[in-house]
## 1
Amino acid sequence: MATQKKATETDYSMQEKILALYDLQKIDSQIDSINKVKGELPLEVRDLEDELEGLRERVKNQNAEIEELSALTKQRKREVDQAKIAITNYKEQQNNVRNNREFDAISKEIEYQELTIELAEKRLKEYAATSKTKKEQLELAEQAVSERVKDLEAKQAELHSIEEETASQVAELKGYAEKASAKIDERLLAAYNRIRGNVHNGLAVVTVRRDACGGCYNRIPPQRQAEIQQGKKVIICEYCGRILVADPEAGTAEGTEK
């Protein structure tokens, strides 16, 4: 494939490559113009998707925390039940003790089980309060998820509608762009794409009009303009770094103005 590209490149003169660059810029500018119709929609869709992912993760974590509190509640309730049973058994044993020492030992066991119940009940109240708060937070998070899903679906539908309306036009323009790109060597094409990415309006190739750069409007010296007209090499604006070309439509434009 690389060999085929290299062979194709030799078929075109520098002037033809520069003209192809000019055509490619016009095509890319048309595609940019179509994409502007989407406005901030693609970004808004991505932001909503990211927000939804975060909200769903929050819902998942809150559900896990509520389940953990539920498990701890069951455990503490079992501890209370076991302690109550133990107290009942110890009290029965107290009725059959042979001396004060045995009575005191059992009394201490009963006291320990009562403290276990007291601590467990304290924890149960804490779990209940925390669980209530978590459930309220979960309800708010689930509500937020529901609202964001609706927002996302609306934005996606709007974006899909625009893309559907412009799909055939964009596809056609991309076909033209491929044909123009085929006339440009890889190094020059890479430079074009790099410049396009660095300028705010996507204009990497501009014409000289009224003796000035069409990108930054700085004056171009006559000798430089003559070199641009010849089209024997790629000329870069020394001020903004854009590729300067002679305007093939200059004659037509001037005739129209007159």
## 2
Amino acid sequence: MFLGEHQHTLDAKGRLSLPAKFRAQMTGSLVVSKGLEGCLYVHSAEEYSQFFSQLTERGDFDPKFRKARRFFSSGAVETELDSAGRISISAHLREYAGLDKDVAVIGNGDRIELWDSERWAAYNGETAEQIEDVTKELAELGIL
């Protein structure tokens, strides 16, 4: 499970070092894809396959699932950690997420999220202001 927030720096070649405690859990192939709210998702290849399977279960007859499939697969890139524990992030994914230099590496359970540090700070601040209402709504639905 991936937890916590870490600040890292993207190098000039578009490589990003993952936190040591995340690297230990990320062996073999990884998939970097567009995420929601302007971040990138990093899954193990196995987790990405499970994630993507949920989108393909309904086939091509539901336009919402087609859109979601295209969104998450069109820019996805398979990669591996290099010997220094870094992943390469393609130019189109860096552009999508606005990654230039300072990157917030966020553990979100079964995946890692990569955010521009300033965008993360703004998002996190907004979420902190809304969390009481959000958790109340979830509790009313019986989720919390």
## 3
Amino acid sequence: MALTKRQKQVLDFIAEFVEKHEYSPSYDEIAKGMNLASLATVHKHISALDAKQYLTRGANQSRSIELGAKYGRARQQRREEVPLAGRIAAGAPVEADEQRRTLKFSDFTGNAETFALEVRGDSMIGDHICDGDFVLLEKTAEARDGEIVAALVEGYETTLKRFYRDAEGNVRLQPSNPEMDPIVARLEDVQIQGRLLAVLRKYR
């Protein structure tokens, strides 16, 4: 059940108070901190948040409010999202997206089969994957022709390349750098470890 705007404000006030003081606020402190008219108004909001499982409270106890698991899940989800403000062109400017959307990193990080590697070298610069970038990959032992994969070759060399099979049963791991030669190996000597999902680059 969704929170009203005021309920969210009360919940955020409680969370910030607990983070700062390491104990929960009293009803009087909530009322004063949020300029609420009366303790009855505080009680109404607390009861609603309790019913929606965003917090729990002890009966007839001072400072008995505790943040619930549902609040923790919602907060974690917010940490894994950034606003998606629209599209941007490399040439003429474009308008920002008026819709309130978010890019969810949990689509990647929430999957136990996702792992990251730091890129070393310039073999994939044609695919805009540069030295020092981080790549997110999905664990898999299978790949389709043309997919970018992390592959273990002959048990000792791990490399990020485009994967291709040939008619003779060999595998070609193709760099996207014209100055580098592909790696050709027998299919049984190549172990696919992951399929590329995303590329992350830090500029500072």
## 4
Amino acid sequence: MIFSAGLGTRFKPWTDKHPKALAIVNGKSLLQRNIEYLQSFEIKDIVVNVHHFPNQIEKAIEKNNGWGSNIIISDERNEVLETGGGLLKAKDLFTPGEKFITCNVDILTNLDISKLINFHSANKALISFAVTNRKTSRYLLFDENNRLCGWRNTKTGEEKGPHLTSPEGRGTTSLIEKAYSCVVVFEYDIFRLMEENNFSGKFSLIDVYLKLAADHRIMGYDHSGDSLVDVGKPESVAIAESVFI
């Protein structure tokens, strides 16, 4: 699933008239680039959620025949649901019992997804997501075994999570800060667990991770050294174009 429903408020003025998913980097939209990225790992059945200028996204997919992939639209026209709510709404579009991947349309990376999947399988995880050691203001916190323990906002000092002292009892200062790369492998059981924990409507996947980390293996795969650009603002397009030809 490619999360493409956001309002793109940081990407104005483009998003005053267009969805961020169709912003162009070296002649290709962010959506096309992510579809082709997934194709490079033989992933061709893709859910795309829409909310902001949804007709433009649908027309682009139709005009380009999905750029060679089988695209299914998850319609969030009535209300943008954030990443967690958007995923739960799309539940019926996934194959029961099969793991799947999500990514954000405004993140471009050359992360090797096959390595992420192998890491996920080796750790028998419920969820595994890519992380790096880049600088940010909001970090996910891990123990030395790459298991998620919590979350920290370095600007406000806020911390939350089930294992802020780490599962082994050591303090929060011993936990390792990593930045979220927004490429995630899920076991299908995530849908049952979200429903059992009363997640509904609009919510973030980060909240899901922190809720479930107490009892489930949620793992961070460090791919520091790979290319990654958050195309969140207009000025980041030039950075992306210097990396992704």
